[in-house]
Amino acid sequence: MINGSKMWITNATQADWMCLLANTSEGDVHRNKSLICVPLRENGKLRPGITMNKIKKVGMWASDTAQVFFDDVRVPVRNRIGEEGKGFTYQMRQFQEERLSGATRRVTALNNVIDETIAYTRERKAFGRSILDNQSVHFRLAELRTEVEMLRSAIYRAAQVHMAGGDMTELASMCKLKAGRLCREVTDSCLQYWGGMGFTWENKVSRAWRDLRLISIGGGADEIMLTIICKHMGTLPKRAA
Ligand SMILES: Cc1cc2nc3c(=O)[nH]c(=O)nc-3n(C[C@H](O)[C@H](O)[C@H](O)COP(=O)(O)OP(=O)(O)OC[C@H]3O[C@@H](n4cnc5c(N)ncnc54)[C@H](O)[C@@H]3O)c2cc1C
Questions:
Q1: Is 69 exposed, middle or buried, given 0-12, 13-18 or 19+ CB atoms closer than 10 A?
Q2: Do 67 and 57 form a contact (C-beta atoms < 8 A)?
Q3: What is d(CA 110, CA 143) in angstroms, rounded to the nearest whole number?
Q4: pTM, to two decimals
Q5: Where a domain ends, among 63, 81, 99?
Q6: One domain for residues 151 and 195
Q7: Residue 44 is part of which domain span?
Q8: Are residue 47 and residue 76 in the same domain, yes or no?
Q9: Residue 101 sits in the same domain as residue 74
Q10: Largest CB tally within 10 Å, which of 31, 168, 201, 214?
Q11: Are residues 72 and 114 both part of a single domain?
């Protein structure tokens, strides 16, 4: 029997089922959780006891996000994924791939923002020449491209470690952190070079500015990535570690 609510569930209003991490016993927070596959719909309608509220977001409008409520929702025991009490461990393992893939998907998105900005600033003339012809502009874009390529290299390194069966937790956390930071830096710098056009709704750079802001928050915020990296560095205060 499931009771409670889950905030921030991506694609909830379209999903047929969800993978739920729920407390299945009392006690230690790392050993009292299990993963459960919960069917959300029957004959195209939400099952009894399940309700949802769609959340209006700043960006990422291509996917919906909802708060999901459970009121005495039953699922058979066979829907539990793996062993009882191992849910937290499974979830932490899954997070490494989610975080690395999150960083990976941003490399092309960021390069696209830079390319769009090159095209726009080449075309747009102010004071008799292209905006792009100002050294501060083309140098800055070169710096941003370099940062994105450094991120790509770190992602390859993490993927190599993972594919060889090693533990990529620290590298995946670094890639996710760096991707989040760059999503903010690249989109903000590029939007600036679009001038007033950058502050309008209907252009690719302002959409990227809104959409890519999520990466520093979703899948574990930047500060959680920093905490994991500190754990690996052995620099966390004793109690937190
Ligand atoms: C659009 C969207 C879609 C999402 N989809 C899903 C989904 O499908 N499934 C799912 O499970 N989750 C999903 N999430 C949830 C997402 O993973 C969380 O929002 C994220 O992990 C941050 O947690 P929180 O919102 O509870 O922030 P909080 O825990 O309230 O933290 C708020 C802020 O406090 C700071 N902070 C938190 N902890 C620390 C710390 N230890 N030290 C220093 N600073 C700290 C950080 O800056 C953080 O951003 C989604 C979120 C969004 C916005």
A1: middle
A2: no
A3: 13
A4: 0.94
A5: 81
A6: yes
A7: 2-81
A8: yes
A9: no
A10: 168
A11: no
What is the distance in angstroms between the CA of the first residue and the CA of the last residue of the chain? 34
Query: For residue range 118-151, what is the model confidence (pLDDT) as tens digits?
Result: 999 999 999 999 999 999 999 999 999 999 999 9
Report whether pLDDT(240) > 70.
no
Tokens of 7: 């905030």
185 is catalytic: no
pLDDT value at position 241? 53
Q: Report the distance separating Cα 206 and Cα 117, nearest Å.
A: 11
Three-state secondary structure call for residue 167: coil
Both tokens assigned to 68 = 């999901």
> Which protein residues touch ligand 1 with a CB less than 6 Å away?
8-10, 57, 60, 65, 214, 217-221, 223, 227
> What is the 221 CA–ligand 1 centroid distance (Å)?
6
Residues 6 or more apart in contact with residue 174 via CB below 8 angstroms: 154, 158, 225, 229
Pairwise CA distance, residues 70 & 87, whole Å:
19
The total domain count for the chain is 2
Q: Residue 45 belongs to a domain with what CATH number?
A: 2.40.110.10
